[in-house]
Amino acid sequence: MRRLEGLILLVLFLVCLLCGCAEVPKEMPKAVTAPPKPEVKPMPPEVPGVLKLPHVPITDWRYVVVHHSASPSGSAEAFDYYHRVKRGWDRGLGYHFVIGNGNGTRNGQVEVGHRWMYQIEGAHAGQAEYNQHGIGICLVGDFDEDCPTGEQLESLVSLIRELQRVCHIPSENVVMHRHIKTTECPGRNFPYYEVLTQLLQ
Ligand SMILES: [Zn+2]
User: Fold this and answer.
1) Is residue 3's pLDDT more than 90?
2) How far is the CA of 185 from the centre of ligand 1 (A)?
3) Ligand 1 center to residue 175 CA distance, Å?
């Protein structure tokens, strides 16, 4: 009886082998690797007025440089595409943070760019020192025409406060783009002294 069972098993195995189902795959198929997607994270405030930065090891940051997008709408993803594709910057999004105005992302939403996540220098200042050591924050909007929203300013102050705390940046090193380069950025309506006053409180 045992012999018969063994014989049946052998026949079944041979049939399987002939059909190909007992064949051992020679090589596992290679995983298809998609090109890396830009890492852009929304960062909603957990407590109103208090922003928690993602936990990353901090490098040598000495300045905060504030910009506007000079466009009525936008988002970190949109600017990343523009910088990567239109300008040909391999590292994409030149800013470290983007603050939305409701046209592209939520009004006051802070998005964290991959340059912050990986602590790499920015491409926003047009000055080596400020690209290398300056944290670039872009508010969506054209502040030559419009004004930043209250929500944007609230998020900006919270974000800068947190960056100052984590990176030990003094308030005099919180600058507008036009302080360091010949440009109108962040627009004539940007309330710099209002922001600075809030930071000093
Ligand atoms: Zn700028």
Assistant:
1) no
2) 5
3) 11
Q: What share of the chain is helix, strand, coil (3-state, %, to 5)?
A: 35, 10, 50
CA of residue 124 to ligand 1 center, whole Å? 6
Q: Does 7 score more than 60 pLDDT? A: no
Average pLDDT for residues 34-51, to the nearest whole number? 56
Mean pLDDT of 174-181: 98
Distance 101 CA to ligand 1 centre (A): 17
pLDDT digits (tens, 9 = 90+) for 112-162: 999 999 999 999 999 999 999 999 999 999 999 999 999 999 999 999 999
Neighbours of 47 (CB within 10 A): 8
**CB under 5 Å of ion ligand 1: residues:** 67, 177, 185
What is the CA(39)–ligand 1 centre distance, in A? 22
**How far is Cα 109 from Cα 111, in angstroms, rounded to an integer?**
6
Instruction: Give me ligand 1 centre to Cα 181, in Å.
Output: 9
Asked: is 41-200 a CATH 3.40.80.10 domain? The reply is yes
CA of residue 45 relative to chain centroid, distance:
16
